[in-house]
Amino acid sequence: MSASKISVTGLRKSFGSNEVLKGLDVEIAEGEVVCVIGPSGSGKSTFLRCLNKLDELSGGTVIVDGFNVSDKTVNLNEVRQHIGMVFQHFNLFPHMTVLQNIMLAPVELKKQSPADARATALKLLDRVGLADKATARPAQLSGGQKQRVAIARSLAVNPDIMLFDEATSALDPEMVGEVLQVIRDLAAEGMTMVVVTHEMGFAREVADRVIFMADGLIVEEGTPAELFGNPQQARTQDFLSKVL
Amino acid sequence: MNIFRAGKLAVAATALLGLAGGFVGVSAAAASQPAPPQTTVTGETYVIGTDTTFAPFEYRENGELTGIDMDLIRDIAANQGFTVEIKSLGFDAALQALQSNQVDGVIAGMSITDERELIFDFSDPYFDSGVQMAVAEDNTEITGYADLAGETVVAKRGSEGETFANSIKDEYDFTVKALADSATMYDDVKAGNSVAVFDDYPVLAYGINQNNGLKSVTEKEQGSSYGFAVNKGQNPELLAAFNTGLAELKDSGEYQAILDTYLEQPAPAAASGFFGLLGDSLPALMKGLGLTLLATGLSILIALVLGVLFGFFKVSESRILRGIAGVYVSIFRGTPLLVQAFFFYFGLPQLTGQSIDVLTAGVLTLSLNAGAYMTEIVRGGIQSIDPGQTEAGRSLGLGYVTTMRRVVLPQAVKIMTPSFINQFVMTLKDTSLLAVIGFAELTYQGQQIYAANFRTGETLLIVAALYFIVINLLTMLSNKLDKRFNK
């Protein structure tokens, strides 16, 4: 338990009378890369959004990086600075330049002076291969470029954990690779990551562990070799037979 | 009849805004507190209410109030050593203001009647009036009451003329229609909507002399006398000073001189052309325009603050805040602006016993009204921004306020700006409604001018052109600023 970066116990979530998560238990160790797969509506994204409390929990306990997220008195703004999140639809701020998008949080949170934030932002842009787009507006970028900027923006607050919510689902196929490459690099650097994805090949390649979810429950989990090579549950076999 | 009408207005306004009958009782008690004992008028300043235009008793010439009533009250004040501040409110509004102690006295060519003596104290009569009938200049068919069978005549609402016309309408078989002021009555007759008008003879005589297009066809009917009024039991020293002053002016011959100025030797009507009218009326209209812009500017600023505040209430997670904003918006969107204006100017002072000046009441009305619409604009603007924007900001660890300020609002303001400009224009036009409570803005000034010169169409054309020019200039400016700052 002591090595757990993320510890989820009995997590439940309902939207009205619709129960989306029906009691999840997950432990994720520091530096571990966990891919979450499963059919649409299985609760993958909701699970991810409960980790940084973008969605309110209905029950259970979530402890992230030592913070009890399910405790109502915890300072969420502080917790969230330890957790980067990347969205399916990028959610870049359209009224700011790429550089301003990345600098906003470090400067507003007084983590860095504007000059330092700028230097960090340029370094991050270089890391995602977009050093020449610093002054561009989000509208001038391709989907893949937007998502790489969004990743750089999340990294700017220096998080310990990164959450990816179907980060490549809204991209044209030829741009998926460039984004996956950035995620792959992060994994190699030892970042703790939870990746909700439909890219089975990527999950198999990068994940330390794969979780298969269906109907608000974890049906099966294991190493990529176990889960993709020898799924035990009929539900998992059925899903994999359709997507592989 | 006038008393009942005037009283009803405030009660109706009060009731309309959902205040219980019990409040009215409380307010009546509060409004009729005895005035502090006062024995002398020397050095005092009294606020005197009057009609907007009741030529030749009160009207505007080059923007200045003049007429028999005005000369009389000013000369009496000078004679008795007090000063007067004249408020040109309109007849109903002046009586209303007197009842709510917004003014100390009223001189408005007001007939002394038994009903009015129940609620006001009157001075000695200062003028003996009477009702006369007039028809269009080219009308040769109507020469007496007997020719009115089956026709419609017009009279001023609540006036002696109306009472007289009603008293003979059955005998001569005609219908009486009531309008609010002389100028519109004369226009009604010229337009052929009514065949004749019944009006006070000095007013009619003055209008005919000003080429209003009418001619009188009957002798003056013996009518009532005009008196100066104070609220019942209030300002007795002012009433006494008026009587003393009036007597002294009569003795000195000054009184007759004033009457002669307006009745015996009426100023010859200078039938100036359109540009003459434009030149004559522009100074007063510009003064009105200034007040229109002042009221608009103040109201929009306050409305903006209210709109942002309640707009945030509306998108907040707190049910209570959303409820407060909801009630505010539904009250001010759910009642007519005119009723709100009457309520704030006449109703509120009766409820609180605290008088309120017309600019404050006007700005209060407009800003609360526009604020309700602004609230909806702000709410709509914020809600039009993709929730993903807020999620992105919050997931970076930014607080609600910072996310709003740096992420949501800059985008929302861009979306709201055209609606803001639209509301600005609406509010500017809505200021014209404040003419009814005697706020001397552009429309009011226009009414004053055509009430005195009877050139309704041309005057309104100038007023409309001024609104048009100013609104379009401001809209162009706003759009330029919008383009510049909201790229």
Description:
The complex is a heterodimer of chains A (244) and B (487). Chain A has 244 residues and is an alpha/beta fold. Chain A has nine helices and ten strands. In chain A, the strands form two sheets. Chain A has a six-stranded mixed sheet with strand order 6-7-8-3-9-10, sandwiched between helices. A four-stranded antiparallel sheet of chain A has the order 2-1-4-5, with helices on one face. In chain A, a hairpin with a 2-residue loop joins strand 9 and strand 10. The longest helix of chain A has 16 residues, at 173-188. The radius of gyration of chain A is 18 Å and the shape is globular. By secondary structure, chain B is α/β, with parallel strands linked by helices. Residues 1-36 of chain B have low confidence and may be disordered. Chain B contains 18 helices and 13 strands. The N and C termini of chain B lie far apart (61 Å). At the A-B interface, helix 2, strand 6, helix 3 and helix 5 of A face helix 15 and helix 16 of B. Chain B: It is found in: Cell membrane.
Any key phrases for this structure?
heterodimer, A: 244 residues, alpha/beta, Rossmann fold, 6-stranded mixed sheet, 4-stranded antiparallel sheet, 9 helices, 10 strands, 37% helix, 26% strand, globular, B: 487 residues, D-Maltodextrin-Binding Protein, domain 2, MetI-like fold, 3 domains, 5-stranded mixed sheet, 18 helices, 60% helix, disordered N terminus, Transporter substrate-binding domain-containing protein (chain B), Solute-binding_3/MltF_N (chain B), amino-acid transport (chain B), cell membrane (chain B), transmembrane (chain B)
Task: Give the helix/strand layout.
The complex is a heterodimer of chains A (244) and B (487).
Chain A: E1 4-15, E2 18-29, E3 33-37, H1 44-51, E4 59-64, E5 67-68, H2 76-80, E6 83-86, H3 98-108, H4 114-127, H5 143-155, E7 161-165, H6 173-188, E8 192-196, H7 200-206, E9 209-214, E10 217-222, H8 224-229, H9 234-243
Parallel strand pairs in A: 3-8, 3-9, 6-7, 7-8
Antiparallel strand pairs in A: 1-2, 1-4, 4-5, 9-10
Helix pairs in contact in A: 3-4, 3-5, 4-5, 5-6
Chain B: H1 2-16, H2 21-31, E1 45-50, E2 59-61, E3 64-66, H3 68-80, E4 83-88, H4 91-99, E5 105-106, H5 114-119, E6 120-122, E7 127-136, E8 152-156, H6 160-172, E9 175-179, H7 182-190, E10 196-200, H8 201-209, E11 214-216, E12 221-226, E13 229-231, H9 236-252, H10 254-264, H11 274-315, H12 319-333, H13 337-352, H14 358-383, H15 387-395, H16 400-430, H17 442-453, H18 456-485
Parallel strand pairs in B: 1-4, 1-5, 8-9, 8-10
Antiparallel strand pairs in B: 2-3, 5-13, 6-13, 7-10, 7-11, 7-12
